[in-house]
Amino acid sequence: MSITVAITILFVSFFIMMIIRVPVTFSLLGASVVTCLYVNPALISSVFLRLGDGVQSFSFLAIPFFILAGDLMSAGGISDRLVAVADVLVGRFRGGLAYANVIDSTFFGGISGSPTADVSSLGSITIPMMEKNGYRKDFTIAITVATATQALLIPPSHNMVIYGQAAGGVSTGRLFLAGILPGLLLCIAMMILVRRMTIKENFPRGPKYTLKEAVRTCLNGVLALITIVIIIVGCSSGIFTVTESAAIACVYAAFLTFVVYRSVKITEVWRILKGTLKTLAMILAIIASANAFCYLMSYLQVPAMITNFMLTVTDNKFVLLMMINVLLLVLGCFMDVAPLILITTPILLPAVEQFGVDPVHFGIIVMMNLAVGSLTPPVGTTLFAGCAVGHMSIEKVSKALIPFYICMVIVLLMVTYIPAVSMFLPNLLMGAAV
Predict the structure, then answer these.
(1) Chain centroid to CA 288
(2) Is the overall model pTM greater than 0.85, yes or no?
(3) pLDDT for 125-171, tens place per residue?
(4) What three-state secondary structure class fits 169?
(5) d(C-alpha 274, C-alpha 305), whole Å
(6) Is the CB of residue 119 less than 8 Å from the CB of residue 161?
(7) How far is residue 354 from each of residues 63, 310, 311, 316, 320, measured CA to CA in Å?
(8) pLDDT tens-digit map of 86-105
(9) Which of 19, 290, 293, 296 is the most exposed place for a label (fewest CB within 10 A)?
(10) Alpha carbon of 176 to those of 232, 358, 367: distances in Å?
């Protein structure tokens, strides 16, 4: 048996199946089985045992709770209230609806943890609203999908839970805290970009609110934002674990939806649960199959080989991080977020740790890269969702996204080369990692 041939079979078969549009779960599993047939057919039983091991983690219990909380908030019309709050804050300025789009995505990202949920929920409101008020349609879709990627950074991002497990049990609480400042930095960068485009294209002003209207609107929305406080304060203070905070957030979301706002009938619970179960099934299936794929990579010593290769190419930390950024940006064009996290983390993390890069800091670097990747064809799920909601071709929206790509890459470089952007809050509130 040749290790080189086995590795080639593993990756080539995986990418061939992806190219012919085989679902990623079956691509990962199929590539693993084909490789086992070459290496040692007896390994197939070990691979299938890894499917169950991949999802038998207590930390993964947080994922269904976070998804359900986001679905409850979305079904309960929370997105409408968040858009209204954002409009009160910045709507009166020229280009106010564009600013509001950035801010409401920041708010909703702290509730749903999913860029796709953000686009599906907020996009159905903001895209028609902006278009009706004179904004170009391609711009409205572009800003909606670009700002939705903040959900990967601002807690509760369920992809951070996945990264924490893939990285060997990195604290999800530290990851959540580490994502706050980069998420806000991305928000500010988007606001600056909107400001420049407002001057260039002379976007319209939004309506002004009376003080009474503004206070009433903000009070309607602030209850939803308490969800973020529950998660962040609970995790960072140690009052409860991430899983417990997710469960409490879920109960709070149900209380708001069914008792306070009464925007959804209790009979709709089954429909919401079915949607949550569908999303959860896809995520857990990917996690299970990726775990089997990663088992084979470890068996074939792929992480060690790639780490050694990178260290022979350069012994400069900054060059290595740039190489990893380029690699992740390219892979992000072809793979979805969760499988990319599960496959690349065990490979790349050992290399950066040798240069003293904190796993939490590296996790935020990964999330920033994947935020860009989620907007790039041919496998940009957030981009696809925005085009579907806005009824426009991917080509036109991708062209309108060019300024946002540049903006996001600038923020990515800041996050990569200024560790304090990520590490300040976790070190301040939870102490420096030992």
Answers:
(1) 19
(2) no
(3) 778 878 877 888 888 889 988 988 888 888 878 888 889 888 888 88
(4) coil
(5) 43
(6) no
(7) 31, 11, 9, 11, 11
(8) 777 776 777 788 888 888 88
(9) 19
(10) 7, 15, 12
